[in-house]
Specification:
The structure is a homodimer. By secondary structure, the first copy, chain A, is α/β, with parallel strands linked by helices. Helices cover about 35% and strands about 25% of the residues of chain A.
Chain lengths: ~425, ~425
């Protein structure tokens, strides 16, 4: 049943600054696609079954543009190091364990279960460099009903023995085999090319990935300008390039089907390139705080017309909650305004809500709103754990929910492209 | 039954940097006081009843040095303004409603219930300027079993009509009557003098409060150096004082029974005064972020030997969770290090745990540890909502719990001075 009507107090973004609010509205879904939200059910839809959620808040599903599946096992720990040391001490040793498919199956079972319970309806996910484990991750995510992209990671240098791939050829070959296995295998989970980041990939590997991408026409995700030491290393590897982003660009990896996580320290040249190419920026405020990277100037990116969404970046970020990412984005933007640049106005709630829905959703097409023609991803919120006393309008209730609901609970229902998965 | 033994995986602070960890330890409580933690039950305590919590984490109760009871009603909303405007638009109008005792009873019932469910065992609480409502707040908190200080707020200037007290005399008189009603009425809830902050109190009122404090020998709480505009206003009111803190000091309000919330912008003179007088700093990282005040340099205060604890500062902070305050404190200290002063090393987990337990606990006496002689405040943590896969040591489990457990649930048991309240 992918055609139906939901009644509730419906909120969704029209643009970065505009929230539409329909108390007692009717959101109409036909074959998994939104027909819009109405004050009364239009005649042509009167025959559809209606789900009455009373005054409960109904919003579009949330989109996570950047999360590491294998790092879910150690989320909330190991918060005492910066990026490069953090990778060596925590992330790489844990990722090494995913060579064992049994380990992968058990860890990814927990990850997938938690993602299903979360407010996330669509996610773009890093696996490890292991093709078998990554295919297991895809199987598990497919079962959740979420729509996802998942990447087998490429890394043929600067990684610990065991985790590092044997050669550029071996990495490329494993990637092609993985694409052959998975490109058409799942309905909702698709592969995405995933060179870990410039320091992890030889030029030869990057050239091969460029060829693979042309041949397979798949999107791509990576990391960009997250930490000062990382940027320094990249600068030493490619002294002739005007920015870190240009290193990806020389291999044809910067375009409108690319997500670059972080962009904390993007130079004006890099920002210009991101904009020209239509690259998506995955803003990961919790991770950038936890591993002390800094604060990305999202106000400047939004006002400059860049495409921006949110990422939980587990396990740099401690939680998969995109509600938490939403409020973290507001909070760090205030500290950026106060401590770094008082011409960068803090993000308002409507803007962070936009980032979590339409902003990131655009990577998946028409996703992240109830405007007509958008995929019908929806959450019905359960506020019962938040007793309130002051009278609140729907936007205040939504704001409060985002600030207080940071765990994986609190949903009465969750729909992805018109299919109810909770 | 206030004499018993708890078996569990017991963690507590010995000092700001040292965490004691006893897997399968026995914490002994006699008449509500800790006798210490042992690997085996000492002979003299063999007769005591034992509660076996297996491998569950057992830690001291958490201490909230700064929370506004009446603002609980609008927590998680109204995050778009700085302090002075935020008070006028959100806090003062809501506090005005507490003139009505029925309103107060209903709102404080919710507040008290949530505090009881929380990980907080001791709290220092602002009421409103209304004596009746504040006494109701004290009744409700007494029933929870928490140990608390609660203040009737004094404010005779710069507040909206209705909320502002009629005169210094009226404010002082109401305060004395309230003290007469409440000083001896409750076992666990005691009054604390609460001049809101310098801009809200005339000199005449401050002089009267100084007299009242001498006569009644009660502790005192207020706000200090939170926001640049606030500090500017205070500077204009007292141009001859070397710091905001010295304005309180001239009325005898800076001593070892004083809590000053925030101290984001304390000058070297003010820090020196705080240290000399033994004043407690209530660090409120969420509030300082949400109303864009800035980041308090807690590393400097800790290393300088100041007495520091944590405050949730609801509703500048969105949640009463001191676990959240703990991780917020770490997170903002990283941003301070990165963006403001890289000689201020980020707080580590052991330090923030200390702030939340022993640091703030010291305001209540020997509170916040299981060292012998400390009040037996204890939490038994429920990690069942956090499935984990990687093997973790007790401190990693505790760190993860603090990062992920941000709501009011997740406790198997809660003891205050040896009395089980959950």
């Amino acid at each position: 049943m992918r055609s139906f009507i939901i009644k509730g107090t419906i909120c969704y973004s029209l643009s970065p600054k505009e929230l539409a609010v329909h108390p007692n509205g009717y959101a109409v879904c036909v074959d998994g696609v939104s027909m819009g939200v109405f004050a009364h059910i239009p005649g042509e839809y009167q025959h559809l079954p209606a789900l009455d959620y009373g005054d409960h808040l109904v919003i579009p599903g949330l989109v996570d543009l950047h999360i590491h599946g294998p790092q879910y096992t150690f989320r909330g720990t190991g918060m005492d190091l910066e990026l490069m040391d953090w990778l060596q001490k925590y992330a790489f040793p844990e990722e090494s364990r995913f060579e064992n498919p049994e380990y992968a199956a058990q860890a990814y079972e927990i990850f997938a279960r938690q993602m299903k319970k979360s407010a996330t309806t669509r996610a773009v996910v890093f696996g490890t460099r292991h093709a078998t484990a990554t295919e297991i991750l895809m199987e598990k995510l497919e079962e959740t009903g979420l729509v996802t992209y998942v990447g087998k990671v490429n890394m043929d240098q600067n990684a610990p023995e065991g985790l590092q791939e044997a050669s550029a050829e071996a990495s490329a070959e494993a990637t092609v085999q993985w694409l052959e296995q998975t490109a058409e295998r799942f309905e909702r989970c698709k592969p995405i090319l995933t060179p870990r980041f410039i320091p992890s990939c030889s030029r030869q590997l990057m050239e091969k990935l460029q060829e693979i991408r042309k041949a397979w026409n798949v999107p791509l995700q990576s990391h960009l300008s997250e930490n000062p030491l990382e940027i320094q290393i990249v600068g030493e590897m490619f002294p002739q390039e005007p920015s870190y982003g240009h290193c990806y660009d020389r291999f044809g990896m910067m375009d409108e089907k690319t997500i670059m996580a972080h962009c904390v320290y993007s130079s004006p040249e890099e920002v210009q390139l991101i904009k020209q190419r239509g690259v998506f920026v995955a803003h990961c405020p919790a991770s950038n705080t936890n591993i002390a990277s800094g604060i990305a100037p999202i106000r400047r990116y939004l006002d400059g017309g860049l495409r921006v969404g949110l990422g939980s970046d587990v396990a740099g970020g401690q939680t998969e909650s995109i509600f938490r990412a939403m409020t973290d984005a507001i909070q760090v933007s205030k500290l950026y305004w106060r401590l770094v640049d008082n011409s960068c106005k803090p993000l308002c709630f409507a803007e962070s809500f936009y980032l979590a829905t339409m902003g990131g959703g655009a990577f998946f097409g028409k996703v992240g709103s109830f405007l007509p023609g958008y995929a019908f991803d929806a959450l019905v919120l359960d506020e019962s754990a938040m007793p309130y006393w002051s009278p609140m309008d729907p936007v205040q209730r939504l704001e409060r929910y985002a600030y207080l609901q940071t765990g994986g609970e609190g949903l009465l229902a969750k729909f992805v492209a018109g299919t109810k998965i909770i």
